Amino acid sequence: MSGNTIGTLFAVTNFGESHGPAIGCVIDGCPPGMPLTEADIQGDLDRRRPGTSRHVTQRNEPDAVEILSGVYEGKTTGTPIALLIRNTDQRSKDYSNIAQSFRPGHADYTYWHKYGIRDPRGGGRSSARLTAPTVAAGAVAKKWLAQQYGTQFRACMTQLGELPIAFESWDHVRENPFFAPVADVQQYEDYMDALRKAGDSCGARIRISASGVPVGLGEPLYDKLDADIAHAMMGLNAVKGVEIGAGFESVAHRGTMHGDSMTPQGFRTNHAGGVLGGISTGQDLEVSIAIKPTSSIISPRESIDIHGQPTEVITKGRHDPCVGIRAAPIAEALLALVVMEHALRNRAQCADVVREVAPIQASFL
Question: CDD domains, per this entry (predicted)?
Answer without folding.
Answer: Chorismate_synthase
